[in-house]
């Protein structure tokens, strides 16, 4: 296969002073993209500032690539996008990767722990994306990646603030994928697991060694390539492996026997095992499918009621 390249493209990678973001920036630059290496240079908990981005820019330039450092916080996302426009005249790719942790059990979590995590992960991604959006729309081209986490998809002890922000990013991507569709703006989500300072005391040492960010970078790079046509996808990657994650809905069950019956707390309890029975569960592609499914079910409910009179078995197929 011909090499997939990014010549003429400008990418902003947030939090690219280390870890995953650095691997993304290096790979994109090695394939011809001009890269804004953004990093506030804070500690793992978000405190302080440093110029971590400089070393990454130097590494890119030493290898013949083109990059510029940006030290703004993603919370001021418009400044990062301005850096791209001021230096390279355009923006095509935005990888929202910056992140910090404030892990604590929920009892000990303060409002500040909550706000800080929402600000960097969720509001930061909103701000950068919002600042780039109009350009993407006008040029009818944009590639955006949000960074979620299995802590968001599944929950994880001590990460209530982080899980909420990380699943929030999936919601943001879902809607932007819809709003960006007619402008060739693809919005996807990566769920990485990699060795970095965020995970050095979480992952077992032998796993930490094997989980190089460089194994995930090609997945993310493909997801922001012009040939990438998926949108709204959640891609989980680690250890040189990638999978797609989706939400599934059970077939559900009516909460009453006849259309004229009331729904009561007891009838809900009575039908609960069918409501949560995931056999035959389906992934629905879009919100319109949710409505269509409901309308279909209601019609079937009405028809069965007419056919079966007063029988108790209208819903045996559910
Ligand atoms: P990392 O700590 O090496 O990289 C995150 C970078 O973001 C740091 O260089 C930090 O200075 C920068 N940053 C923090 N706040 C910022 C702000 N306000 N503005 C700009 N830059 C800021 O961590 P890692 O592991 O590379 O994480 C990258 C992303 O991947 C994060 O969003 C993280 O939540 C996510 N992630 C990582 C996982 C892993 O296994 N490493 C698992 C799931 C998600």
UniProtKB/TrEMBL annotation:
This is Peroxisomal multifunctional enzyme type 2. It comes from the Eukaryota. Belongs to the short-chain dehydrogenases/reductases (SDR) family. The chain holds residues 1 to 318 of 722 of the full protein. Coiled coil: none annotated. Residues 9-201 form the Ketoreductase domain. It is found in: Peroxisome.
């Amino acid at each position: 296969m011909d090499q997939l390249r990014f010549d003429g493209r400008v990418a902003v990678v947030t939090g690219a002073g280390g870890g995953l973001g650095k691997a993304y920036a290096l790979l994109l630059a090695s394939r011809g993209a001009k890269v804004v290496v953004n990093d506030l240079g804070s500690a793992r908990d978000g405190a302080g500032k440093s110029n971590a981005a400089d070393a990454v820019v130097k590494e890119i330039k030493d290898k013949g690539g083109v990059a510029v450092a940006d030290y703004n916080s993603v919370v001021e996302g418009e400044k990062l996008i301005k850096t791209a426009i001021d230096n390279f005249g355009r923006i095509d790719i935005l990888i929202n990767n910056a992140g910090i942790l404030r892990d604590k059990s929920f009892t000990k979590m303060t409002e500040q722990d909550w706000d800080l995590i929402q600000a960097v992960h969720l509001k930061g991604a909103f701000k950068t994306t919002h600042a780039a959006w109009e350009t993407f729309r006008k040029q009818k081209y944009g590639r955006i990646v949000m960074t979620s986490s299995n802590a968001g998809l599944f929950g994880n002890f001590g990460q209530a603030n982080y899980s909420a922000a990380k699943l929030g990013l999936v919601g943001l991507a879902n809607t932007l994928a819809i709003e960006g569709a007619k402008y060739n703006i693809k919005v996807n989500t990566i769920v990485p697991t990699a060795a970095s300072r965020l995970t050095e005391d979480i992952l077992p040492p032998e796993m930490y060694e094997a989980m190089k960010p460089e194994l995930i970078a090609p997945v993310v790079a493909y997801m922001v390539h012009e040939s990438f046509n998926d949108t709204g996808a959640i891609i989980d990657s680690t250890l040189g492996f990638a999978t797609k994650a989706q939400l599934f809905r059970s077939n559900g069950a009516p909460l009453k026997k006849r259309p004229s019956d009331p729904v009561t707390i007891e009838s809900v309890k009575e039908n609960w095992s069918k409501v949560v029975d995931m056999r035959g569960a389906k992934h629905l592609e879009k919100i319109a499918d949710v409505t269509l499914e409901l309308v279909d079910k209601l019609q079937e409910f009405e028809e069965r009621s007419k056919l079966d009179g007063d029988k108790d078995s209208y819903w045996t197929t559910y």
